[in-house]
Amino acid sequence: MSTVNIKINGNPVEVSEGTTILHAARQAGYKIPTLCYHDDLVPFGSCGLCIVKQEGSSKIIRACAAAAFEGMSIITHDPELFEVRKTILEMILSTHPSSCLTCIRNGECELQDLAAEFGIREQPFEVRLSDRPKDTSSASIVLDPEKCIKCGRCVQVCQDLQGVFALEFIGRGDETIMAPAAMLKLEDSPCVRCGQCVVHCPVGAIYEKDEIAAFREAINDPDKQVVVQIAPSIRVGLSESFGLPAGTVTTKKIYTALRKLGAVAIHDTNFGADLTIMEEGSELVGRLTNGGALPQLTSCCPAWVDYIEKYYPDLLEYVSSAKSPMQMVGAVQKTFYAEQMKIDPAKMFTVAIMPCTAKKYETVRDESMYSSGFQDVDLVLTTREFARLIKSSGIDFLSLEEEEADNPLGEYSGAGTIFGATGGVMEAAVRTAYHVVTGKELENVDIETVRGLDEVKKGVVDFDGTPVRVAVVHGLSHIAELLDEVREAKAKGEQAPYDFIEVMACRGGCIAGGGQPYGATDILRKERAAGLYADDKNSETRCSHHNESIIKLYDQFLEKPLSDKAHHLLHTTYAKRPSYKA
To answer: Of 147, 359, 360, 457, which one is the catalytic site residue?
Structure first.
């Protein structure tokens, strides 16, 4: 790769051709402040904080968007640049409320951090706040326009990364606002509740609907027995909230923390992931052998399901009818587990700790989420909410002893663990589907071809002489390419060029979901994924069909995969949903 030689504050630096000044400065050990920039996004240059000087030129350059070129000499910090940046921050703060102590982003706000770094103690400009009210229409996400700094990240994420177009720029100049399309309420917009706007917002203008109070109320209600499940990616996401390196697995400390919080039983969504593989994998085998609609599309991600119901409803026949692991666990908790433990399901309050804001909506999306006779999952807390709950409850997370989950819904395989990373559902399904089709076990269960952060991964898996064509996609903006191929093949009466497609709404999968700790970049995504793969590697059982508790659940309760009882409790249906609600 070609390189260029430049100077940063007089120091020679060699960088790859095409490197931005911002990244060249980082390589040289200089931090240029930014607010609108994010590694996931195309540089937008809207905030103006990253301005730098080029020696020998009167031009002011925005470092996030300008590429370094041979012989360039850049000044990143001097008294004049400091004052300009400080003034920009003061102007931003003049349109931003000073309610930091009561803001959900207090202590995790990029604007707050920069104001502290620049020593801003007074407000020299007239304060002009937005009079637009909060939008609390969504079951998952809250918009607070008063705190918006017009950085544009949410719009870029929603349109370019997710391809949803629920948020957009409205107005011009100083009157520009970021809002749902056509100034609708968020719930009436095309929003799929993925929460990527939340994790990319640098301030508290967009955040998850906080339901910690509902958890505390349930815990303190003597008539309720709180039963909790934790998602695969929580075990590598929560660690960052307590200062541990990204990817650190904290599963057994999480179990302990939940017991200290008062939960009567701790289960693991990984068990539900194994159960999903048994149902979804059996469904795939049935489609492959009986001429069913192919490709089969995975159904674990509620934001993705919402997307296809709104944008490609003509392809819903291809979506697996299997519920998500979370909903499967909730249904089994209030039926099989309640029966085994002699708990009245009417008094059982089921909580799921999830990496995803869309999971809050999923619990009430339709009547199939009440298959136990009650709401199967009563409450969802994101990883961030869970971290705040632990801290506010006086629990010293890092000093906790490690404990085990409660069986039978606490046992899981390594295949269940990797559900949290893009490609993980595919890999787990292949491990079991191969066995169902061939009667044999895979010699090597590590299927590297479906791992990694390439947006679309395609390949062929050999089922002992039977080729199965697979694809993995993450980030909703990339799924249209594959769905258009499926749609075209359907129109021609031909079979699409895939048998099985895994879709995750968020880049990297659930490890970087809308409810995970802020600040996810590809570096963090790889570290979080590595933690899950290491956990899988260290598991005694690595295939879902080897999970003894799953085997017993079928023997004692569900009979077999795709049985009538399994269909009632573990499967769902889909319907066309309008992108815009009048």
So the answer is: 359
Residue 196 lies in a domain: yes
Backbone angles phi, psi at 501, to 5 degrees: -125, 125
- How does pLDDT run across 218-255, given as a tens digit for each residue? 999 999 999 999 999 999 999 999 999 999 999 999 99
pTM over 0.85: yes
Q: What is the pLDDT of residues 339-385, one digit of tens each?
A: 999 999 999 999 999 999 999 999 999 999 999 999 999 999 999 99
d(CA 301, CA 325): 10
The count of domains in the chain is 3
283 classed as catalytic: yes
* 194 is an active site residue: no
Active site residue 579: no
pLDDT for residue 57: 87
pLDDT of residue 582: 62
Cα–Cα nearest to 415, from 280, 557, 240: 280
* pLDDT tens figures, 96-108: 999 999 999 999 9
Distance CA 576, CA 300 (A): 18
Same-domain pairing of 218 and 203: no
Report how far residue 61's alpha carbon sits from residue 73's, in angstroms, rounded to the nearest whole number. Answer: 12
Task: For residue 111, give both structure tokens.
Answer: 């604007």
CA-CA distance, 118 to 113, in Å (whole number)?
A: 9
Among candidates 412, 376, 377, which has minimal Cα distance to 271? 412
Q: Which of 300, 301, 356, 506 is catalytic?
A: 300
Instruction: Note down the domain range covering 530.
Output: 213-570
* Catalytic site residue from 211, 240, 279, 283: 283
Mean per-residue pLDDT, 54-82: 94
269 and 120 in a common domain: no
Residue 104 C-alpha from the chain's centroid: 19
User: 561 and 513, same structural domain?
Assistant: yes
Classify 493 in phi/psi space as left (phi over 0), alpha (psi -120 to 50) or beta: left
- Cα of 237 vs its chain's centroid, Å: 10
- In a domain? residue 202: yes
- Concerning whether 402 is annotated as a catalytic residue, the answer is no
Verify whether residue 359 is a known catalytic residue.
yes
What integer is the mean pLDDT of 271-284? 96
